[in-house]
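I need you to check the entry underneath: sequence plus fold tokens. Let me know what the token row says about the fold.

>
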Amino acid sequence: MSSTTNSHQLPDLDRTTPKEPEMPEAAPPADSTPTEKAGTPAERAATPAEQAEQAEQTDSATDETEPADVDISADADASAVPDAADEASSSAEDASGGSDKTVEAPPTPRGRRAKHPGAARTVTYTITTLAALLVLFALLMPNEPDRFRPAVFLRLPVEAIFGAAVLMVLPKTLRLITAVLAGLSLGAMTVLNLLDLGFNEFLGRGFNLVLDWVLFDDARTYLEDSMGRTGAVAVVVAVIVLVIAVFALMALSVVRLANLLARQSGRATRATLVAGTVWVACSALGVQFAGVQFAARSTAGAVQNRVDRVQATLKDEAEFAKIAKKDKFAKTPPAQLVPDLRGKDVIFAFIESYGRSAIEDPVTAPGVDAVLDDKTAELTEAGYAAKSGWLTSATYGGSSWLGHSTFLSGLWISNQARYRTVTAGDHLTLTGAFQRTGDWRTVGIMPGVQKNWPEGSFYGLDNVYDSRELGYRGPKFSWSTMPDQYALSAYQRLEHGKKRDKPLMSEIILTSSHQPWAPIPKTIPWDEVGDGSVYKDIQKDGKKASDVFYDSTKVKEEYGRSIEYSVTSLIDYVVKYGDKNTVLVFLGDHQPLARVSGDHANRDVPVSIVAHDKSVLDKIDDWNWTEGLKPDDTAPVWRMDSFRDRFLTAYGSTPHP
């Protein structure tokens, strides 16, 4: 039939009915409504011939061009057209109350879509698939490095099923808003999971939403010290761009998938019902693949876990404030504090990242153990003796100040909130006990402190020498502002080597064993240390951090060498400059990060007491520590916060709560 055929060319359709003359249609009144203009349904109905003509025209248009992708998430197969038409028809019917409405044909494709419809469909499918994979990745992403396995991403997340069901029943505007908010929420969860991964890798714990924001400034400073200002700025910019990209891509992905669900509502409903049924069955039966539960609800669990941690943190702050006010030695008279150490020069020294792994790891142990044995022999030859044990640090992989404050305060300072609480109070510290007696001059050697440090008064230090006051004129060794040997040499020049009317109590922080453990200083003759300029060539000839830090074997080797250097510098100092009244207490502040100490390593660190006076070590006979500088497996393991009271009691202090 020709496309120009009309009803006037078919006079034989009804020969029994006389043809009525066509009457001109009267113009509607000016105030007539649209309904009146349209006429009744009978008047609007097309004749069979007109219907046939319209069908033929539609077929012809379909042959000439393919329907355009109305929405970026719409399927390109032929079945999408009837579904779209049904939806449009249903919407029009709901709006007017009628059922006889004409559905608009999809717009004609233009530009590249019209020229390359196959490629356009491929791009559409690819982008939609990537959006779905990104959302699934966010829903299934673990927050611990050792849980990253292929099986984890082959699970069925209940959050996806629930989200699809919600989005399908919402009207367009509300669906768009909900999709955007869901995408931003998934972006936030992804960023938090990435932070958890980083914190677990470096600090052995997840990110604390309440307390850990302050650590970003420390991380930036660490990057500047390790990579230079330009490198640090580049990393910060890259991180910011990554965070923005995660939020934007996640929101766009959810919106895309929401539009697809709306376009393919029939299929999406059936698929959601099937997926929900499968999830319930697998959850009830405990179906697993490669040891991983197939029916996943990890996102909901992660959200609940974070909420619980926030609540626990806020509760912990209130409870710790009460604990910090209690002090066994708070009102002990000065004369009754450490009477058995009167007249002794006491040094409390912390060696950065000196953990149990340094002594026991197969890679680091041979070198470190050999140094500990050699230095024990040197001490014995010089008339000294040593005993060693283990302490469990309150921190891991970093945040050294938490270990320092735990050891000195006798309180478990495991987070920044506790640190702020205790340093803002007047809880008695181990170093503060010596100051309270009035019989010691108390000083701090802090090469790692590069700005004002008000905590010095809390620790009971009469004078603090930070990196700006030690007179160093040499280069930095990555994060460490100066070599340990120089810091000890400056201590000798500024305090220990001077004539005094009081013995000296000192807190010394050694930093050469701070990550990334490259370059490492070398031990040189003490009389050549000078102002540190001699270290320029040593630093220049050392290894680069980038060549060491990311190699699992090299980083362990260099970590071990850094501990060897720090221990050697400290013991050599005691042998050279110590005397019969010298008492040294030294320990590690925490274990190194997981790349060195191993996943899920303990938090134990070595602690040693060195003295020339035999009676000093006799006071701790009942501690059952190991003779020498290397504690063995039989040595007791105490929590670090228990050391203050044990030490004060051992050396004659009388408790007065």
